[in-house]
Structure formats: C-alpha cells, structure tokens
C-alpha cells in the first residue's frame, strides 16, 4: 500500500490454502471505523450495521472455489427527491467463483454467458470484506427515495411535451 492509496475500508483476507474440500463458513461484521469509512466510499449518510455470512467450497474436480454469501446492512441514505436523510434496511444474496489457475490467453476462450468466469485469486487470498463491500454497493438503491417522497406535480407523470425544455424552443421557432 502506498501512502497516497489507502487500503480497503473493510478488509478480511481469507487464505485459500486453508480451504480443503469441506465447506467453510465465515461471518463478518464491520467495526464502527470500517462502517464509517465504507459510508464515505458509498456516499451514505451512515452505515449503522454490516454483517455478512459467507460459505466457501472448493470443487474437487476443477479446484474452483465457489462462494455463496448473504449480507445484511442498515444504512442511512439521502433522498434524491427531498434531500432528507432516511434509514433503509438492505439484504442481499450473492455468489462468486475464484480460481488460482491463470487464464490461458494463447487460446480461444469460450465463456458461459449464463455464469461469469471465475475471478483470479491473487497472492493466495480472497479479500472477503472487500467482496462484501462491492456487493453492498450493488445492492444499494442508486436513486434512494424516502417513504412518501414525491416529485412536484409539475415534474410528475403528465404531459411531458409542455414541460420539456425543447417545448420552449419549439414555441420560439413557431412564434407562438
């Protein structure tokens, strides 16, 4: 880590050499400092709780590590309509595959469009905390709206033609 590049806000390295063929379950809980740093990264007012349960299993035939996870978080977001802060509860399930085998770039690669290719394991570890942080960012509503928040009637569903900026230009062109 360089002084200009901070480390992950929520890091939980998992050494893959400790995983045999028996599944391993890890429970992660972010500390107050980690939650504060993650809230800043994810543009949240606050991240009041973040817990995840992850199960890792190695495939006997391929050596690919399959991870199934579930995260639960309590966040405070800013409403995009009213700019009022409001609490929200987030729950999400996810899965991912990892491999330590390098991808052969000398040959044509066929990808299964149903599933993503396995992620590379670097340095023999998977950062489970960073993985949870990434999936939390995907689970958050990108346009959070507080309960009961509504757009002004001028911008609500209705005649889009009259409220469009192009309608004003059209009236100038037609002289009306």
List the helices and strands and how they pair.
Blueprint (H helix, E strand, L loop, with lengths): L12 E3 L8 E6 L2 H10 L4 E13 L6 E14 L6 E15 L19 E2 L4 E3 H12 L20 H4 L1 H10 L2
Parallel strand pairs: 5-6
Antiparallel strand pairs: 1-7, 2-3, 3-4, 4-5
What does this structure look like?
The structure is a single chain. The protein has one domain. Strands 2-3-4-5-6 form a 5-stranded mixed β-sheet, with helices on one face. The protein has a two-stranded antiparallel ribbon with strand order 1-7. The mean pLDDT is 85. The longest helix has 12 residues. The protein is 20% helix and 32% strand. The protein is an alpha+beta fold and 176 residues long.
Which regions have little confidence, pLDDT < 50, spanning 5+ residues? Answer: none
How far apart, in Å, are the first and last alpha carbons? 64 Å
Shape: elongated
> What oligomeric assembly is this protein in?
single chain
Percentage of residues in strands: 25-35%
The helix content, as a percent range, equals 10-25%
């Amino acid at each position: 880590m360089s002084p200009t590049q901070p480390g992950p806000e929520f890091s939980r390295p998992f050494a893959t050499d400790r995983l045999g063929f028996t599944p391993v379950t890890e429970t992660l809980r972010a500390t107050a400092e980690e939650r504060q740093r993650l809230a800043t990264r994810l543009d949240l007012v606050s991240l009041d709780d973040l817990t995840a349960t992850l199960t890792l299993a190695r495939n006997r035939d391929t050596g690919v590590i399959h991870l199934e996870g579930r995260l639960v978080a309590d966040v405070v977001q800013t409403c995009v309509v009213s700019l009022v802060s409001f609490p929200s509860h987030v729950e999400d399930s996810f899965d991912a595959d990892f491999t330590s085998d390098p991808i052969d770039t000398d040959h044509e690669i066929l990808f299964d469009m149903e599933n993503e290719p396995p992620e590379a394991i670097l340095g023999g570890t998977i950062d489970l905390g960073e993985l949870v942080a990434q999936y939390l960012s995907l689970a958050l509503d990108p346009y959070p709206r507080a309960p009961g928040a509504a757009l002004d009637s001028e911008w609500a569903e209705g005649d889009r033609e009259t409220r469009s900026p192009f309608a004003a230009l059209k009236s100038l062109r037609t002289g009306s």
